[in-house]
């Protein structure tokens, strides 16, 4: 956001947005700081005034130093959007003595200070006292002058690596100590931290729900592709047969995928130079959502060399190149008749297999793993369309296929709803973080002035 001067006729009371300013005047009750306009009672405080700043220590080398009881936090243990550090290695007493490691208290704020990871601008708080690797910077807040949660959120609002050169960027402790963050009075710090922490916790709760639903789907798929669409309490009554892909209901068939699919064709869009088409490549498919989330538009004369496979609505796209084997998606109606990359095997269901069931059958992890065993090539590992089409899959009766697809679609819909909620909370958090840290929005707090 702009750091130019803003104008207003009066002090903005807590809970009200700060009015926009002209380029020549500050709002009443505001002053100019190196962070831009801030309320007169706020400061732009250098970090060294707010806590002790130092780096972690060397990482123990050798398996004999691991398997102990002391948490040792590395850069990879910091979640990109997380709050508290939830993962760590465990090191021994000897590792602590041998490497002269310092124990940092719970509540310490940590973030990367060297390497490409600094560009991710990760921030986290130690959930328990831990030792740190030297690539991490630690700030132990001085609770007499700053609320620890507020300082964490303030640091999330300040990019530290934006101007770093390519290569192996580093943040020195000296420049970190000299960086400024906005510092309201303590009561307002706590009020701001409370708002942001509430949204953060709601987002993390939603992430846990998404994780639980994904585990539920995994377990449900295992049940459905072993016993069929029967209640868990009834599975012992299902007669099973042993097959090359494991136990299945006795009345199911095991078929090679190609036996139940229609042949698809390749075309050359360049032979229709004025034809405009939508193009799907492997990057168009989200490997978590298993959905086409983007596409490119091309004229036939500009067609990429891989744009050769025509797709119909309801086709299932199965990526054949590593590491994209889990890029699997159903073609939506708006892409009917358009083009996908030759890096996909296009699966088009015949009458005896339901397209939605086909999608779930080929996205089931055991099927993906069986296909992956056919990968060949060292620099660009891949499978062929024939590898996919020769692989086997379970084939229930059509009504069972549809019931299996319906049950899994219901779980997918719930996952999608929770993911949308998580995305909305993330956007809300980012917006509030900016507005609150620049005082464009203020929250009520004890001792606040009122207009």
Rounded mean pLDDT is 90
The biggest beta sheet, please? Answer: 5 strands, mixed
Into which percentage range does the β-strand content fall?
Answer: 15-25%
Query: In the CATH classification, which architecture of the domain at 253-395 applies?
Result: Alpha-Beta Complex
Whole-angstrom Rg:
28 Å
Number of helices: 8
Task: Provide the CATH superfamily of the domain at 253-395.
Answer: DNA methylase specificity domains
Query: Count the strands?
Result: 26
Question: Could you list some keywords that capture this structure?
Answer:
5-stranded mixed sheet; alpha+beta; Adenine-n6-DNA-methyltransferase TaqI, Chain A, domain 2; 451 residues; disordered N terminus
What does this structure look like?
- This protein is α+β, with helices and mostly antiparallel strands.
- Among the domains are: 49-183, DNA methylase specificity domains (Adenine-n6-DNA-methyltransferase TaqI, Chain A, domain 2, Alpha-Beta Complex), CATH 3.90.220; 253-395, Adenine-n6-DNA-methyltransferase TaqI, Chain A, domain 2 (Alpha-Beta Complex), CATH 3.90.220.
- It is built from eight helices and 26 strands.
- The chain has helices at residues 93-98, 148-156, 173-178, 186-227, 355-363, 365-372, 385-390, 398-437; strands spanning 30-33, 36-39, 43-46, 51-55, 66-73, 84-85, 89-91, 109-112, 124-126, 131-132, 136-141, 180-183, 240-243, 246-249, 253-256, 261-262, 276-280, 285-286, 291-292, 296-299, 307-310, 316-319, 328-330, 339-341, 344-349, 392-395.
- The chain has a five-stranded mixed beta sheet. A four-stranded antiparallel beta sheet has the order 16-25-22-23. It has a four-stranded mixed beta sheet with strand order 20-17-24-21, with no helix packed on it.
- Strand 13 (240-243) and strand 14 form a beta hairpin.
- Helix 4 (186-227) packs antiparallel against helix 8.
- The model is unreliable at 1-16 (pLDDT under 50).
């Amino acid at each position: 956001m702009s750091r130019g001067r803003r104008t207003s006729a009066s002090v903005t009371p807590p809970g009200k947005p700060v009015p926009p300013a002209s380029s020549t005047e500050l709002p009443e009750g505001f002053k100019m700081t190196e962070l831009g306009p801030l309320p007169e009672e706020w400061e732009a405080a250098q970090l060294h005034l707010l806590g002790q700043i130092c780096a972690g220590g060397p990482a123990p080398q050798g398996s004999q130093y691991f398997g102990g009881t002391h948490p040792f936090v590395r850069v990879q243990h910091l979640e990109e959007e997380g709050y508290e550090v939830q993962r760590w290695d465990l090191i021994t007493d000897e590792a602590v003595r041998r490497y002269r490691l310092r124990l940092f208290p719970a509540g310490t704020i940590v973030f990367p200070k060297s390497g490409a990871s600094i560009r991710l601008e990760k921030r986290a708080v130690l959930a328990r006292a831990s030792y740190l690797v030297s690539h991490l910077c630690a700030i132990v807040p001085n609770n007499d002058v700053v609320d620890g949660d507020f300082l964490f959120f303030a640091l999330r609002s300040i990019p530290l690596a934006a101007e770093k050169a390519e290569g192996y960027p580093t943040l020195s402790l000296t420049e970190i100590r000299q960086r400024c963050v906005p510092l309201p009075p303590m009561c307002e710090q706590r009020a701001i931290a409370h708002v942001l922490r509430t949204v953060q916790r709601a987002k993390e709760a939603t992430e846990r729900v998404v994780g639980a639903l994904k585990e539920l789907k995994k377990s449900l798929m295992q049940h459905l592709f072993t016993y069929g669409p029967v209640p868990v309490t009834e599975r012992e009554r299902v007669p099973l047969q042993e097959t090359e892909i494991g136990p299945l209901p006795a009345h199911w068939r095991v078929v090679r995928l190609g036996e139940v699919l229609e042949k698809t064709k390749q075309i050359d869009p360049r032979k229709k130079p004025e034809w405009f088409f939508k193009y799907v490549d492997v990057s168009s498919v989200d490997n978590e959502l298993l959905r086409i989330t983007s596409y490119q538009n091309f004229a036939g004369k500009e067609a990429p060399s891989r744009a050769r496979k025509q797709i119909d609505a309801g086709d299932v796209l199965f990526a054949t190149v590593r590491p994209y084997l889990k890029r699997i998606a159903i073609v939506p109606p708006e892409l009917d008749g358009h083009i996908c990359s030759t890096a996909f095997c296009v699966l088009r269901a015949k009458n005896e297999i339901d397209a939605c069931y086909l999608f779930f059958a080929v996205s089931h992890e055991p099927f993906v793993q069986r296909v992956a065993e056919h990968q060949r090539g060292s620099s660009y590992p891949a499978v062929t369309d024939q590898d996919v089409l020769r692989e086997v899959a379970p084939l229930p009766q059509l009504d069972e296929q549809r019931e299996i697809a319906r049950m899994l679609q219901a779980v997918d819909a719930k996952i999608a709803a929770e993911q949308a909620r998580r995305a909305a909370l993330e956007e809300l958090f980012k917006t509030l973080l900016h507005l609150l840290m620049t005082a464009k929005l203020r929250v009520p707090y004890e001792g606040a002035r009122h207009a």
